[in-house]
């Protein structure tokens, strides 16, 4: 297999290659810092959300080649992020207590617990919200609790015939007084697709005692599966997600358990994609028991595809993506799927969407008619869209 895909490192901006060198502690020549656009360097550090760990590495290595004004900007941002993470720690304890008192089991997916797990310090990873996973059966109960505590639900999910349960994977809450956002997951990833049940994940959970009360989070192999699935779905458009993989691969992961997990959920090639990108960009040393990831079929191709997002500094969270980025990302998402996943996705398109309800409003007791009507409603929308354009 091709363990060294053509990732076209030479086509990356110098500022980005220097960023990779600093984050991976590679020793470079003074020459590489000549003619640097330091404003662009900072822009990349903030875009990729790696400025806290970048600041720490520059400071610990006593890196004198970085201009003082650049270091000062990173230091200020580092301090602000530390304060933000301390706020999230407080809210973690609060949400954890609410769920414990209501006997709702929850797993923290990201936030401060992930910073501690991967970097050993809450200040070294950014996070703008808390992500928790609970059983779907407890969603309604937790919704009532959060509303009573001042959270406001963002009702952005449009659904018909209950498709939200498997097409979506989380709902967002915002607390205006605290200025904090909470994402409540009932799945790890959007559907359709198979993934470990909450019961399975709970049985393999780990406990963290860095707060005054214990909190629970994913086991190592489940965490790897979650992070590579999330990162690949976003095209690894932020290198912070790859830095997370680099950090996780420094820990002891059971190769047999991980292989079985990724194989069961058709994710071997995206595990390989993440491993290849991490080795190429951060010089990650893959443990012997995990080197099979580097030889996964199609992993090299997927790694090459991910460079589109680095070359173009893609922000998938922007309100309006350029058409070429939107089309590329749609194709990339499809290429991440296995054949069974593609088949399941094709079948799922036959299930009614909320757009069918908007096209032809029917009373709720007649919603079952959207199944036979869906092809005609889809064709009508396409015809109208073409006519309007």
TrEMBL record:
Q: What's this protein's name?
A: Renal dipeptidase
């Amino acid at each position: 297999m091709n363990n060294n895909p053509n990732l076209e490192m030479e086509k990356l901006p110098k500022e980005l290659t220097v960023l990779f060198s600093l984050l991976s502690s590679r020793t470079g020549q003074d020459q590489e810092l000549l003619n640097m656009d330091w404003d662009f360097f900072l822009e990349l550090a903030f875009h990729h959300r790696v400025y806290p760990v970048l600041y720490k590495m520059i400071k610990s290595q006593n890196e004198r080649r970085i201009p003082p004004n650049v270091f000062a900007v990173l230091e200020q941002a580092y301090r602000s992020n530390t304060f933000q993470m301390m706020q999230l720690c407080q809210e973690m304890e609060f949400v954890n207590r609410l769920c414990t008192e209501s006997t709702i089991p929850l797993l923290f997916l990201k936030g401060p617990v992930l910073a501690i797990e991967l970097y050993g310090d809450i200040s070294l990873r950014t996070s703008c919200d808390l992500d928790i996973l609970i059983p779907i059966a407890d969603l309604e109960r937790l919704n009532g609790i959060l509303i009573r505590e001042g959270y406001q639900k963002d009702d952005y999910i449009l659904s018909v015939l209950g498709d939200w349960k498997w097409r979506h994977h989380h709902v967002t809450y915002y607390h205006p007084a605290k200025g904090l956002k909470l994402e409540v997951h009932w799945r790890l990833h959007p559907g359709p697709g198979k993934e470990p049940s909450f019961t399975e994940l709970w049985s393999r959970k780990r406990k963290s005692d860095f707060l005054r009360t214990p909190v629970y989070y994913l086991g190592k192999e489940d965490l790897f599966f979650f992070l590579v699935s999330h990162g690949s779905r976003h095209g690894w458009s932020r290198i912070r997600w790859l830095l997370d993989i680099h950090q996780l691969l420094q820990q002891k992961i059971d190769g047999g358990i991980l292989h079985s997990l990724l194989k069961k959920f058709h994710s071997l090639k995206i595990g390989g994609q993440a491993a290849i990108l991490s080795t190429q960009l951060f010089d990650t040393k893959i443990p012997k028991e995990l080197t099979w990831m580097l030889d996964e079929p199609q992993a090299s191709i997927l790694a090459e595809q991910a460079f589109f997002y680095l070359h173009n500094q893609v922000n998938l969270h922007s309100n309006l993506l350029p058409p070429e980025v939107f089309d590329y990302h749609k194709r990339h998402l499809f290429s991440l799927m296995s054949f069974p996943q593609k088949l399941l996705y094709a079948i799922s398109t036959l299930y009614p969407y909320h757009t069918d309800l908007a096209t032809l409003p029917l009373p709720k007791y007649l919603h079952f008619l959207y199944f036979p009507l869906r092809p005609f409603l889809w064709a009508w929308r396409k015809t109208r869209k073409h006519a309007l354009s």
